[in-house]
Amino acid sequence: MSEYDYDLFTIGAGSGGVRASRVASAYGAKVAVAEEYRVGGTCVIRGCVPKKMLVYGAHFAEDLEDCRNFGWEIEGKKFDWIKLRDAVLADVDRLNGAYTDTLENHGVEIINERAEISGPHEITLASGRKVTAKYILVAVGARPFMPQFPGSEHAISSNEAFHLDKVPESIIIAGGGYIANEFAGIFNEFGSKVTIVNRSDQLLRSYDESLRDRLLQISIMKGIDFKFNTHFESIEKTEDGQYKVRFTSGEERVVECVMFAVGRVPNIEGLGLENAGVELGERGEIKVDRFSKTNVDHIYAVGDVTDRVQLTPVAIREGQAFADTVFGGGDPVAVDHSCIPSAVFSHPPIAAVGLTEGEARNQCGSVKIYQSDFRPMKNVLAGRNERSLFKMVCDAADDRILGIHMIAPEAPEMMQAAAVAVKAGLTKADFDATTAIHPSMAEELVLLK
Ligand code: NDP
Question: What is the residue range of 413's domain?
């Protein structure tokens, strides 16, 4: 008999926590996972998945325009937000059920309560019940950062965006990162007057400059308004239910909705980490080593709460590696956080892997750049003046590909395969030696000049 109630107690049933729990259980561990909200976490419940469905829904606005030159005339078209919203939320319910089933089928006990660490090996549940565990995994994710200033309580975050009763006629989205650009595209396609307001003059800071410039140019062309180097002073509710936003420059705008998308902060409050002596970093993140272990030997953390790379597939890998390391019986497994492909589901989307041109020049000195700036065939016939850009960054010394960057329809779909090549250390010559698939956008990858 073990001296503990569980071999593993996971706090948080999001992407990282679910993977870790079910794999640990499959290795024979007795596992419980506590979740105070819904099984699936940010990605499934109020992030990547429902967002991608809204992106699809939004894109029909362009498809229905573009189809004309392909001979289609659609009369009486109209958009019903409530229908889309409810279909998306119903699918979220389905996924919540599917994740719950996965855990239960793997013999993981789900405890639908908030959990707090109350001693080195002890967890106290919201009901007051106390349990003990040999290992504790903290996988509680992150939440939107909401700046505080007069009237800031009137602003929503992406969490609420999925539940709106109507598409706002006008919206200010604060931030210039992933969420701001993705939701700007969504609301713009649905007919909102969208203004992105960012504190600096840079969008999507971590992406290659040429792609960022291209997205800005296309977004402006589509009707999205940008205000850079701008800071909020206050938000005031008007008599007719709108919001008067005042910036520190003195300028004012009245809009129907204000949304903040200015980063996400680790969810560490009320977890009782101090009761076990778990160390935090400067941004409030749980500090971990390369095996996701905290400074306390039997307490681990994975996913957004560690603020390493806030991406679902990374959290899943960290959860898997944790379970392999602690319960797998083999060598410890560390997640390789280098060369992670990523995408922004803007209109059009951006996808990237590896170093940007700027990073490569700083790190390698001599680099070679290959590019293709083209108008996709479908856009040509549709009469859509929207160009795509592919860029390959290579080490001039040995031709090795250091990064690939794309902005194009379906760029994330193309990038996944290209990322394999970059991760494997292939060269530009390897791409050149590959026959093109014609006609496709992806063929530009092997025809770069
Ligand atoms: P991002 O980190 O992408 O962008 C944050 C933006 O907010 C930046 O433009 C930044 O400005 C601005 N900002 C940061 N702090 C402040 C502040 N204190 N006041 C005002 N502005 C501020 O954050 P998001 O919220 O868009 O997304 C959070 C994370 O979620 C992403 O980093 C990503 O990891 C993940 N995510 C991934 C997606 C995907 O994979 N497609 C989709 C959505 C989210 P500046 O850069 O000018 O300093």
Answer: 348-446
* pLDDT of res. 233: 98
- Do 56 and 119 lie in one domain? The reply is yes
Structural contact between residues 45 and 38, judged by C-beta atoms closer than 8 angstroms: yes
Residues 249, 230: contact at Cβ < 8 Å? yes
Query: CA 206 → CA 148, 175, 258, 303, 404, distances in Å?
Result: 26, 14, 25, 19, 13
Structure tokens at 33: 């996972």
Residues having CB within 6 Å of any atom of ligand 1: 147, 175-180, 182, 198-200, 202, 205, 261-264, 310-311, 342-345
**pLDDT tens-digit map of 50-74:** 999 999 999 999 999 999 999 999 9
User: What are phi and psi for residue 25, nearest 5 degrees?
Assistant: -65, -40
Of 262, 292, 312, the last residue of a domain is 262
Tokens of 357: 């041109």
Q: Is residue 2 predicted with pLDDT exceeding 90?
A: no
DSSP string, 383-428: T----EEEEEEEETTT-BEEEEEEESTTHHHHHHHHHHHHHTT-BH
Q: In 44-95, which ranges are E strands? A: none
Number of domains in the chain: 3
pTM of the model: 0.97
Q: pLDDT of 388-421, one tens digit each?
A: 999 999 999 999 999 999 999 999 999 999 999 9
From 15, 56, 156, 178, the mutation candidate for ligand 1 (largest count of ligand atoms within 8 A of CB) is: 178
Q: Are residues 134 and 272 in the same domain?
A: yes
* Strand partners for 73: none
Q: Does residue 332 sit within a domain?
A: no
Q: Which strand (E) or helix (H) includes residue 169?
A: none
